[in-house]
Each structure stands twice: as C-alpha cells, then as structure tokens.
Write a structure and sequence with these properties.
Length: about 290
C-alpha cells in the first residue's frame, strides 16, 4: 500500500510542477487522489464534530455545512458535538473533527488531515490556527470562511481547483480574502465544479462503510496503542510530497505502525509562503 499511495502523490507532484496545459487538466478533476469515504448508499452524511471555542468559528462551520449541503452532492454534512479537545484535535473514527486554537507561530492557517486504509478515508480533522486568525491581517469573516470551507472539504477527498492565487470563485482555490480583498466574498463557497468532482469521486458504491452511523452519538474509538493523529509538532506530518509553486499549499504523508497512512494538507500564510516558496516551510518554524 505504501508504494501505491506514494505513486499517487508523486503523480500529483508531477502535475503540480508541470506547465499550463497540465495545470488545466488538474483543474478539470481536482480530487485529492482516489481517496474517499467507503459507503453503501449513493448519498451519505458525514458528521462534523464541533470542537470550536468561539461563536465566530461556530458560525463559519454552520455556513460551511450549509453551503456543502446546498448542491447536488453525494456528501451531506451534519454538525454534532465534538469528541476531542480543540487543542489536541484527535481523530475520531468515521467523522471529521473540526477545531480551532492558538496552535502557534508555525506558518500555517489551516490544516486538514485524513487517515487512510487503502483508498478509504476512515477519519479526519480540520484545524484553524487562531495565532494568525486573531491578527488584523486574517481576522475577517471572509478569510475565515474561505479556510474553513476548504479544510472541511479536504476531508471529503476534494483537492484544489487552483493554487496560483487566482479566484475560481470556489473555496477550493488559493485566493486570499485579506488586505484590499478582505471585504470580498468570492472564493468563500463551493461552486458547481466542486460538486461535479465530488459526484465523480463517489460515483461507485462500496460493500462496506467507514462513515459513523447517523443519528446517534459519536464515541472516540480506541487507538490500540497506535497514534495516527497529527500533533502540533510539524514533524508529525511525515514527508513533504507536493508543494504548490507559490508555496501556499503543501501535502505531507506519514506511514503509521498499524499499516494506515495519514495525509495532511497545509494552508500556509502569505508570509510563510513568500519567505521561500520552494522550501519545506517547517524548517523556518523549528
């Protein structure tokens, strides 16, 4: 399985570093990979565990869930009580746990991680870093919504429509709703292309499911002594597999002792990316 996943990410890296014609192909199908939640029905509901500590963030999660539920989508979302702490944001089987905290001056705005068993997503987390969102540069409704919308959707298996900073009027691009664009609502919601790709990702049914049952409470699953979570230490992300040309987007891969794989999408700040677009930005925050 390690070779299989490495090849997929290596292909993604090749696409990301290629010319304009290849970039347009990537835009046509911006799935993260072949990764998806296993499910036995055409439409399923993914629980989003609300571990958010402020009404400002809870409102953004509510808007995100509403926006993703509004389209022609196989992935419905339901906000439920969180089953972890905002600080640790540990994974819970069959769910995406959504968290915010002051995670530190480490260069990232948002972090989305998924745990994989083969091609199947088994659990995920979406984290927003208040160390930056509490500053004047990033503390506005539209930038918060852009990042929340994107990080949650990464845990569906969805990748970026664009990584060059242009707006595709989708939260799955890297337009920055900061500075003179702070009042702009572009790139804060999914668009029709996002829903089209989700329907492609989930075009087939599986014989089993990795999604927590609904309705009912979410109970944190025992880890069996194997830690698959991503901590606040960037070293826990594993190896850098792909980075956008402007340095704002990175994908990391880690192999776990239980045979599973954890992938992490990192949404870097403008400042971290500008410092050295081609560098693994973790080096600057150790």
């Amino acid at each position: 399985m390690r070779k299989k996943i490495f090849k997929r990410l290596a292909l993604a890296a090749t696409i990301g570093l290629a010319g304009t014609s290849i970039a347009n192909v990537a835009l046509a199908n911006h799935a993260w990979g072949t990764y998806h939640w296993a499910r036995t029905t055409p439409q399923f509901t993914l629980k989003l565990g609300n571990n958010l500590t402020t009404t400002a963030w809870s409102a953004r999660l509510t808007q995100t869930a509403s926006d993703w539920n509004a389209g022609n989508t196989p992935v419905l979302t339901a906000i439920v009580a969180g089953s972890t702490s905002a600080r640790t944001c540990k994974m819970v089987a069959g769910t995406t746990q959504v968290c915010n905290a002051s995670y530190g001056n480490n260069g990232w705005l948002g972090l989305a991680s998924i745990n994989l068993s083969g091609d199947h997503i088994t659990q995920g987390t979406a984290k927003m870093n208040d160390t930056y969102f509490n500053t004047a540069t990033y503390n506005n409704v539209n930038e918060r919504e852009h990042v929340m919308c994107q990080e949650v959707a990464h845990t569906f298996g969805l990748g970026h429509q664009s990584e060059d900073g242009s707006s595709q009027n989708s939260c799955m691009d890297y337009f920055s709703n900061t500075g003179s664009n702070a009042g702009s609502t572009v790139s804060t919601k999914p668009n029709a292309h996002d829903f089209s790709v989700l329907n492609t990702i989930y075009a087939h049914l599986d014989s089993t499911t990795t999604v927590a049952a609904t309705p009912g409470p979410v109970v944190a699953a025992a880890k069996g002594g194997v830690d698959v979570d991503i901590s606040n230490d960037p070293a826990s992300w594993g190896a850098l597999m792909k980075q956008s040309a402007n340095g704002r987007s990175s994908i990391y891969q880690r192999f776990n002792q239980d045979g599973s794989v954890t992938l992490t999408h990192v949404f870097w700040t403008n400042e971290a990316a500008a410092n050295c677009p081609s560098c693994d930005h973790r080096r600057n925050f150790r």
